[in-house]
Structures are given as C-alpha cells and as structure tokens.
Amino acid sequence: MRDVAVVGFAQAPAVRQTHGTTNGVEMLVPVFHEVLGNLGLSKSDIEFWCSGSSDYIAGRAFSFIAAVDAIGAFPPINESHVEADAAWAFYEAWVKIQTGEVDTALVYGFGKSSAGKLRRVMTMQLDPYTVTPLWPDSVSVAGLQARAGLDQGRWTEQQMAEVAVRSRADAKSNPLAQLKGDYTVDDLLGTPYLADPLRKHDCAPITDGAAAIVLAAGDRARELSDRPAWVTGIAHRVDSANLGGRDLTTSASTVGAARDAGFDKVDVAELHAPFTHQELLLRQELGLNGTRINPSGGVLCGNPMFAAGLIRIGEAARQVSTGQADRALAHATSGPALQHNLVCLMEGRD
C-alpha cells in the first residue's frame, strides 16, 4: 500500500442560494484557484481529477461534463466522476493513486440545491417501485428514523436540540458556515415541528456550495505540505435500501466501514449528519464519547449536497495539518436514513 495524504483543501462559502448555473462552474473556479494556489501548483500538475455531483440536483443530464469547463478540458485531462457525494470520488482517487498510475489527484464536489425542491428531489433515491411512487420526502423519512429512536429511548428531543446548539456555536469560528450563533435549548424546543418529531433546527439547511481536496503520494505529499494528513484507512459499506428491512436506530454499515478502515481512538471526528438525531446515532455506534465532534459546525450549519461529505474529510484533514489533532475520523453518508456510509481515518506524523 502506498502512503497517501490530503495536502490541500478549499471550499466555497455555504450559502442559501447562488445565482450561477447548476453545473457548478462559477463556484468551482475560485475553489480550484485557492486550493492550487496555496500549494503552488498549476492544473497541469494534477494527474487525475475526480468529481462527485448529481444530475438530479442539477436538473440536467451530464452536468458533471459541463463542470469540466472549470478545469479546461484541453489539453486532455485524466478525469472521472461519481454520481454521489464527492467523498466517494475521494475514495476512487485514493484507489487510483494506490494503483501507481498517478501521484497526485484533485477531488471536487458541487451542488446547487436551491435550484429545485430538495426534499422532493431526494425522493428519487428511494426504491423506485414501492416507495418513490408514494413521494415521501427526505425530511419525513428522517422523521421516521428520529421517532423510532425516541420511542426506543436512544435519544431525546432535548439531546437533539443540544446538538443544534453546540453546532451553531462551533460554527461561529467557521467563516464559511451558513448558520451560526448562540442559541438555547429552550428557545429551540419552543419552535414548531417541521416533520414531527423534527423541528427546523434538527435539519440541515438547503445550501449551495462546492469543495476540492488535493491528494498526493509519498514524497510528493511531503513536498507539498509541512504536515500532510496521511490516510491510514478508508472503507465504505451500504445497508438495505428497504427502510423496513433494517433497524433505523442503528447503522451497521457505519460500524462495518469503521472496522474495515481500522478505526481506533481519534482526537476529532467530522460526522456527516444532516439531522441532529443522526449525529447522536453515529456517536453511539462509533463510541465517540469524549471525542470532539464537528468543530467546523458540521452539515447542520451548511449542507452543500454532494460536497458535504468531502468537506468532512477536508475539515478533519485540516485539524491534522494544523496540529490541532494527531488522529482524525471523517464520515460521509448517502441515501435515506444513513443507508450508505464511508469512514476515512487520517493522522499526522512528526
């Protein structure tokens, strides 16, 4: 296995709405400029490009090809794409470097959620024969999961509100966060339900945004970063698409991915939890008591679809590269009710 590390990370501000096109070009150009400029690299120095996005969010076929305009498709580039969160593009790029074909890769993800009705668009990821025709929206599906956990005593509405309070307070130190500020649990619990038992603060906001990460192998990583965030393990697993075929209050795929990635104790964890109860679930499943969770504020303070999981990797890597953590865990999720989960472990080496 080759040593591979995150050496660069940049993201666009998480905002409720942008005025650009749905192919992400307007958001991506400044992100590429920042991440490459910080490393002293040009586009020609990148040997492999891999993106994550969704044509359903963009509302057009092959929108990821239009996004290549942000790179410049001529001279020809070595490029790939996943119709998923860019955390899975990160996995593909990591595998590409492991093959020895390339030493550097740039991974990017983008999503303009404001272009449509996100709650309904996300219904398209459900079972197309028995569930999608009923049009249960994504917040309502998450509400079923939250209710199951409440009924089993796995979490309480107060604990859910505490997650939102902490997340928005932590986001005050993140200049790119969409939501931030000081709130109290009582204030949040006094607001009306959005999809019982979920209130507005329990749900990640609708966000437009993009992000990019640069990966490098071995000595090349050491040249580009004073303290690379070395990837010590990465794995992803998926649970049944049948919502009634799995226990929604647990996450076997997260536990399996963490085990296969070689999870042990970490200093900080960036969890991709679009709903407050999902953070509580992930913390319980991974045994993260006492671990710093989402110092960036997490997706509850900014949730650019198809980039949010990649941002968790970037934020965790930032903790390592700045010396604020020696070992970090990044988690990404896709699908309804934490169906598909990826775990990436990173460490700093002095």
From TrEMBL:
Entry GO MF terms: acyltransferase activity, transferring groups other than amino-acyl groups
Transmembrane segments: none
UniProt cross-references to InterPro entries, sorted A to Z: Thiolase, Thiolase-like
Gene3D superfamilies named among the record's database cross-references: 3.40.47.10
Domain of life: Bacteria
Name of the protein this chain belongs to: Lipid-transfer protein
Species per Swiss-Prot/TrEMBL record: Kibdelosporangium aridum
